[in-house]
Amino acid sequence: MSQFHSTLSRRDFMKGLGLIGAGVGAATAVSPAFHDLDEMASTPSARINMPWWVKQVDEPTTPIDWNVLPTLGTACDDNNGVVPNIRTRAEYQKVMLDYTMKQYPDWDKGPTLTGVPGPSPDLNYPDYVGDIKDNALCVGATLCNAGLFPTEVIQATGGKYTTIQDRPQGWRCVKPVEQRGGTKWQGTPEEALKVVRAAARFYGFDDVTAIPVDDKFLKVMWGQKRMLRMATPTKFEFGDVDDFVCTPEIQPMSKIVIPKRVKWFLQFSSRQLGEVTKHGVGTCQNAGQLYTYVNWIRTVKTIQEFLWGLGYISLDNINGRFAPTGATGIMAGAGELARWGAVMTPKYGIMVRVMHGVLTDLPLEQSSPINFGGREFCKTCGICAEACPMDAIQKGEPSWEVNHKWDNPGYLHWRNDRSKCGHCPVCQPVCPFNAMDKSFIHELVKGTVSTTPIFNSFFTGMDKNFNYGRKPPAEWWESEQPVGGFDSSV
Amino acid sequence: MLYWIGLVIGIAIAVGAYRLNRNTKLKWYDWLFGLAIIVSLAAGVQHYNGSVSGFENSAAWKGLALFGGLAAVLALVDWQLIARRKKA
């Protein structure tokens, strides 16, 4: 008779069973217990649609000294609110062209991007993103980039309207719901967040969370801030008004009075087209970034229309109109503040284009900040800082010290020098947390990083060894990319 | 379709391995080796497919080499352990 099965004794088998049983028991003891599916579905982690390894915490992982932050402070308005670049346009272009040619000696810089909103408007030192195909991909993303109307349309309005951003309170394309034979939507704050989340995801956003307009929020909210390209700063006040009162009614606004019943901030983020961004090469950001600017501004305004359709009002925070988006993103639990200076999300890493949000009078369930080990990972990683051609991202440890007038005090972070940043295509694609293909390894790594930092430097090394990050530009044209630019199943 | 092909190949390998080794005495650690080899191989294949579908071709091959190599080393070690036990 074969002895094949006789090497494992019954005694050993029972011992093994005992060990497995003990393991399962221990795992059960530390796992969350649910009595039924409804209970499981209504847990906060289920509501915010986050991976299992994301922990909800009381405070953001970035330490904030609330005592030094003024309530409704004033944003730096030096240089008309724009961070000046320490390099001339000529110097910046030379650094980026040298950097690119060193990496890809045969790179064809192609036509200029002159006329595309965002890239350099300097005719002598324009931006280049590569050969005619890469260039055309950017040109295709020009239409309504940043919500900007075509010149002929702007001229037809006599210059009154320039972009879809012109109405911070939304365009309100239909009459109020009461005038359309209905009543405003009613529900609990939990139901409201679920409804808004469903709509926001339908329109294209994720990480839909909410926080109240409380004392902490007012400490990160601006009382005065100048929007990009605006002639004057805008003052923000809360007052006894029924609706947002913008003075003047159209941009540039010098004052916006916010109704006191507007007590919630609704937060959402948009994925950036990752593969295009990873293949981006040149002196400025690429079609991935540009096309996301076409989409996200439209989507913010679309969500405002949705809220209006429900019977509620809102004020957009496009381009940090009234609050720094990094602060709102981490307070609302969309992600953690990462070394590169913006929010890193658990699912998409830093391949997101800004945190978005609106102030609204729709009562929403409060979300918590999250911790998935992202900031801790940044401490040992630093791949983005090593990659930055401009040396703009701080290496080493985070600091409380403010080095520039336009930098905000009150939080312990890497103090990046934005006056050196030229918005090139390098740092964003190299973050290890961007890895989101369908390999099991990323779940395993992210789950481990969330639990313990001891393997972080090993994972950083593995990311480099496996060649994640940036890729040669020509490869993108050879690959069959998913419709819309990203695989929505990951 | 690939599922059925994989299933048939898997059954064929299992039957073949059983017939070849029916007279081999296995220790508890041989089973452990076997489990580790199967897990490594499965990890390698899943990583390869997942990475290729995410356009990470370089990572796909390196991961397959890493996990596949681990499986190969484990298989070699266990094969030698079994072979030397037989000789002794």
Automatic annotation (TrEMBL), chain B:
Keywords: Membrane, Transmembrane, Transmembrane helix. The chain crosses the membrane at residues 6-21, 28-48, 60-82. This is Reductive dehalogenase anchoring protein.
